[in-house]
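Hey team,

Filing this mostly as a record. A colleague (T.K.) asked me to run one chain through the structure pipeline before their review meeting, and I want the input and output archived in the tracker in case anyone asks later how it was produced. No errors, nothing strange. Just documentation.

Input sequence:
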Amino acid sequence: MRVLSVVHQPDAGAGVFGAYPTWVPGAQPPPSVQDVDALMIFGGSMHLDQEDGHPWLAPEKEFIRDALERGTPILGVCLGSQLLAEAAGAVPYRSEEPEIGWYDIEITDAGAADPVIGPLAPSVELFEWHHYVAPLPPGAVELARTPVCVQAFRIEGKPAWGLQFHAEVTRENLFSWLDRWGSSEAVETSFDPDAIRAASELRIEEQNVTGRKLAERFLAEAARA
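Output structure:
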C-alpha cells in the first residue's frame, strides 16, 4: 500500500505513526492523487486561512479535495484535520480558547463504535496544541470531543478521519515546540510551558503506544478500503 505523509514543517511529521514517503507542500508540487493509496496529513504552525503568506496551501487544498472525492483513505491531524474538514465543506476558524497541553477527550457513542477511535473509549488523555478548530463537516460523524471543540470525526461514506489531538507526536518533537515557546503564538496565552513539559515527561511514552496503535488501525481500514 502506497502511504503518503503530508508534512508542513520538519518537527511536525508522522512521528510514531510510521515512516512513509513524504510530501512537503511548501517545497514540492503536489504528487498525482492516483499514485497514493492512503494519505496522512500532519500539523504545522501555519493556519489554513493564511494562503497569502503560504501560497502552497491552495494547491494542497485542491489535492486533498481530489483525494477525498476519489475515496482515498485519509487521516488528518491538527492542521491536517482542519484541512480535511474544509475539503468536506466545513469552515474552520480561530478559537477563542486554544488548547495547549494534556486534555481529557470524551469519546462519543459513535466514536466507541468506530474502528479507528473505538479502543480509546470512553475517554483518553492526549496532547493538544492548536489555536484553530474545525466544526463538524456536513454529513460527518463526531467521534470525540472536549468542551472546546470536536476532537475527532469521520466523513460519512468515506474512509477519512480527522483528529484535532496530536497522538503522533514524539518526545523530541513535542519538546522542540516547547523550546520555541517564546517565538510562537502560545506566548500570548496563559499556559505554563514548564508545567506542560513536566506533564509531558510523565505521559508521552504512554501516548506513543496509543498513537502507534491508532495509526495501525487506520492503516488496516485503509487496506480494506
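Quick notes for T.K.: Residues 193-224 form the longest helix (32 residues). Strands lie at 3-6, 22-23, 38-41, 74-77, 93-107, 123-133, 141-145, 150-154, 160-163.
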